[in-house]
Amino acid sequence: MRMSAKAEYAVRAMVQLATVDDGVPVKTDDLAKAQGIPPQFLVDILSDLRTDRLVRSYRGRDGGYELARPAVDISIADVLRCIDGPLASVRDIGLGDLPYSGPTAALTDVWRALRASMRSVLEQTSLAAVASGDLPEHVRCLADDYRDQEEARGHSVG
Question: Coiled-coil intervals in this record (predicted)?
Fold first, then answer.
């Protein structure tokens, strides 16, 4: 999976919004500054998130953006799908319609497993979990395993 800059910025903006009290709109410039996101790029992102009903916007001097529903009810997958579409696709073809045969036929199941793995992390990790640092157990375990593998290879982890 390759995450676009737009999707990564969207997730960061949404996690930042998850830290704000309900009913307190955040101005675009404040949100951009808090996460180091180019303001005009953030305007486009927030428009997409609003269209998908993940955020609400308020006009006026006291206006801004807030989450459209509780942070615990919005997954990272919700945000990524809003911005970039399906979590894992192969040439924008449905997995059941891929033209694999012979020795490559099993690749369809590899792609299904990849999608299922990504979904288990992204759909079960809420904005609230990220904002609080209290990630689901299986996500923490996968992250720990990855860090261990990187350290074993002599790579720095960050």
Answer: none
